[in-house]
Write a structure and sequence with these properties.
Helix 1 runs parallel beside helix 15 (about 410-425). This protein is about 35% helix and about 20% strand. It has about 425 residues and is an alpha/beta fold. The longest helix has 24 residues, at about 105-125. It binds flavin-adenine dinucleotide.
């Protein structure tokens, strides 16, 4: 083991939260070392160039800069001269009711359903501290779109089952505004723009964090040696924290352990099917497809079809179904996706996708993430705030998407939580 090396702040993880913290510290000239387990930066912002898709850029994880008007990464991207594509305006939308497209009045009713849904959620939360997300649709069983909104907001967007998911956490973090996509991919943007000039040690997993030491110093063990510092900011996912793969010595206080248990990881799985024929399912290029959900238990798999004119469709499935498909394997995920497409477009999808290449994302199998992002069970809506609270003397801090209330589960939440943790180091 190498002798302990000193710095002011050690950041564990070079995802967006860790990069945010390190940049904020660098701006204040505070020495900081970022330890990253893998051989790349960006974490769940990862643009890959898979051979199955002919080497085209593809987002394995995050795609959009949500709520662009309030997203702190948007001004950074603009200042750096990045081209930000207006995803909402470029994309056309198609909604199906069974195998036919929705009528104009159904589209209008569906559009309004989101406001109706939020209004009921507010009514429920005015009367009770928390409830499951499912309580909203239960109260509006006469609304033909309530279960579709529920399927989107629960399993699809928040990777959580509606019967278990905290309505209060959902309402705190529901996103508005517009979505932007950096041209060439968000992961590539993060790598190009957010890591520059930082002291990042790749392939250096932290294995044990010794905190509460003399003078409040923190030491971090890695296979390459020990590092010690005044502060340590831990930005790994709650999946990694809950797994015990990163040990804390002494153990974390019960309150922190409870907060981690209150932030389980959900799973989102992307399944990409590349067309082998010329049929484009009568859809415009760069089009999103969803369908009406009429009973609970029916799964919604929205599709991005022919994104940027490419020759594939990309389905997204979340929560328990994604975990089940992950257990059953990639062939099961592909068959599930084909079944979803058949239910809208019929047997032509088999001809179209027979022989085309496939790609299935596997965040479940990534040991440095262990899922896609965190969700909050009913009654645990303060878990994010509790995790962001330093356990004792402020020398050990947590940041990351799970720690933010307002932009939870997103790049912006991760980034802001990193800045907040850095500010605590600067102040303390
Ligand atoms: C499929 C998918 C789609 C998404 N879509 C969007 C989207 O469109 N828009 C959006 O805003 N957000 C989206 N997100 C969420 C967003 O990607 C995350 O919220 C954000 O990237 C989390 O950043 P983070 O820094 O908190 O964590 P991470 O990105 O997970 O960073 C943590 C880092 O810690 C490293 N690490 C783990 N253990 C150790 C260790 N022991 N030692 C050292 N390093 C370690 C990891 O390798 C990782 O690099 C999506 C996520 C997924 C998975």
């Amino acid at each position: 083991m190498l002798p302990a090396t000193d710095t002011d702040v050690i950041v564990i993880g070079a995802g967006v939260a860790g990069l945010g913290a390190a940049r904020a510290l660098r701006e204040r000239h505070i020495p900081c070392v970022v330890l990253e387990a893998t051989s790349r930066i960006g974490g769940r912002a990862w643009t890959a160039y898979p051979p199955q898709l002919g080497g085209m850029w593809f987002e394995m994880g995050a795609i959009w800069l949500h709520w662009a008007e309030r997203n702190p990464l948007v001004p950074i991207a603009r200042a750096a001269g990045e081209t930000l594509l207006r995803a909402d305006e470029l994309r056309q939308k198609r909604t199906f009711v069974g195998m036919r497209e929705a009528t104009l009045s159904e589209y209008a009713d569906y559009d309004d359903a989101w406001d109706r849904y939020e209004a009921i959620a507010d009514e429920i939360l005015a009367a009770t501290p928390d409830a499951p997300l499912a309580a909203v649709a239960d109260r509006r069983s006469d609304d033909p779109w309530a279960l579709t909104v529920e399927a989107f907001e629960g399993p699809v967007i928040c990777v959580a089952e509606a019967e278990k998911f905290s309505l209060r956490d959902w309402r705190t973090n529901v996103l508005g505004g517009s979505n932007l996509v950096p041209d060439g991919g968000i992961g590539a943007f993060v790598e190009r723009r957010l890591g520059a000039g930082l002291d990042i040690r790749l392939d250096t997993p932290a294995t044990r964090i010794m905190w509460n030491g003399p003078g409040g110093r923190v030491s971090v063990e890695t296979p390459r040696g020990v590092l010690s510092a005044r502060h340590c900011i831990v930005t790994v996912s709650t999946g990694v924290l809950a797994s015990g793969a990163l040990r804390f010595d002494p153990m974390l206080p019960v309150a922190t352990q409870d907060a981690i248990a209150g932030l389980p990881m959900g799973l989102a799985m992307k399944v990409v099917l590349r067309a082998s024929g010329t049929d484009r399912l009568d859809l415009p290029l760069h089009c999103s497809v969803d369908r009406q959900i009429t009973h609970r238990g029916e799964r919604l798999m929205p599709f991005q079809c022919w994104p940027f004119g490419r020759d594939y469709v990309q389905g997204w499935i979340g929560a328990d179904t994604a975990w089940a498909l992950a257990r059953d394997g990639e062939a099961a995920a592909v068959e599930f996706t084909l079944t979803q497409l058949r239910s809208i477009f019929g047997g032509r999808v088999d001809r179209l996708f027979a022989g085309g290449t496939r790609l299935v994302t596997r965040w479940d199998a990534d040991p440095w993430t262990r899922g896609a992002y965190s969700w909050v069970p009913v009654g645990q809506a303060d878990a994010r705030r509790r995790l962001a609270e330093p356990p004792t003397d402020g020398h050990l801090l947590f940041a990351g998407e799970a720690c933010h209330d307002g932009f939870a589960g997103t790049l912006s939440g991760a980034w802001i939580s990193g800045l907040d943790a850095a500010a605590r180091c600067i102040g303390g």
